[in-house]
Design brief:
The protein has 270 residues and is of the alpha/beta class. The chain contains eleven helices and eight strands. Helix 2 links the parallel strand 2 and strand 3. It is globular and about 45 Å long. Bound molecules: 2-phosphoglycolic acid. The site of 2-phosphoglycolic acid (PGA) has 13 residues, from strand 8.
């Protein structure tokens, strides 16, 4: 497989800080021997509270309590959210500058759970994208229809609305990049995954919409489309067969090394 693959582990609020650190440690030590020099990037997205320690684990050479700093491992740090200002009187929020200080390179934005439970709007998503890009953070923007929207045949309308608003006034300069995660809400585990055919249909729509915002070269060089929703070791390769899919956002199957390592290894061995 020649294309660069992004596997994004969205740990949600599922692990304690200790569990998250232990998992990161195992992934780094078990995985990176084989992953090195492969065209696969693994992005760990723990809770904010675990970012500092996991950032340190990823940078260290051996034990969690010491060792050399290393930059050659394909494990990167991502956050699950960010606020759309850099500084100010915003109690409880986290700034992109603070994330950068911890070594964060990616930020998940607009996850359906935040849209559903925290009232995150399309406008918030747009503002968060802009602040990420301004701070050299790569936004991982989640879009996807709910079960009801799909049943009412509003999938396309939803995708068009979410994507159009997310990309409003966005230009991608220099090294700026974005990742778009198509994640149908009805396919998030424990629900069954969307079929590759269903995913492909929406990815074609997304590609089409992207042309209203960026030229072909920008799309090719700076925009990555991935799929999310019940991805595991048994189905990841089916999604990667879709030519424009370059990775996956993985929730449940990223929470245990026994499940996550086979998923990553299946890609690498391909
Ligand atoms: P899942 O979650 O892999 O458990 O379906 C994906 C996500 O919600 O990001």
């Amino acid at each position: 497989m020649n294309k660069k693959i992004y596997i994004i582990a969205n740990w949600k609020m599922q692990l304690t800080n200790v569990e998250a650190a232990e998992l990161a440690y195992v992934l780094k030590n078990e995985g990176t021997k084989e992953w090195k020099n492969k065209n696969t990037e693994l992005i760990l997205c723990p809770s904010f509270t675990a970012l500092l320690e996991i950032g340190e684990i990823l940078q260290r050479d051996s034990s969690p309590h010491g060792g050399e700093v290393r930059n050659d491992i394909p494990l990167k740090l991502g956050a699950q959210n960010v606020f759309y200002h850099e500084k100010g009187q915003y109690t409880g929020e986290i700034s992109p500058v603070q994330l950068k200080e911890l070594g964060v390179e990616y930020v998940i934005i607009g996850h359906s759970e935040r849209r559903q439970y925290l009232n995150e709007t399309d406008e918030d998503v747009n503002r968060k994208m802009k602040i990420c890009l301004e701070n050299d953070l790569i936004p991982i923007v989640c879009i996807g229809e709910t079960f009801t929207e799909r049943r009412e045949r509003k999938t396309e309308v939803t995708i068009i609305r979410q994507l159009t608003k997310a990309l409003e006034d966005i230009t991608l300069k220099d090294k700026q990049k974005i990742i778009l995660a198509y994640e149908p809400v009805w396919a998030i585990s424990p629900a069954p995954a969307a079929s590759p055919a269903e995913v492909k249909e929406i990815v074609i729509l997304i590609e089409h919409l992207l042309r209203d915002f960026f030229d072909e070269e920008t799309i090719k060089e700076k925009v990555t489309i991935i799929y999310g929703g019940s991805v595991d070791a048994s189905n990841i390769l089916d999604y990667l067969k879709i030519s424009t899919i370059e990775g996956a956002l993985v929730g449940g199957a990223s929470l245990k090394a026994e499940k996550f390592l086979p998923l990553v290894q299946s890609i690498i061995k391909k």
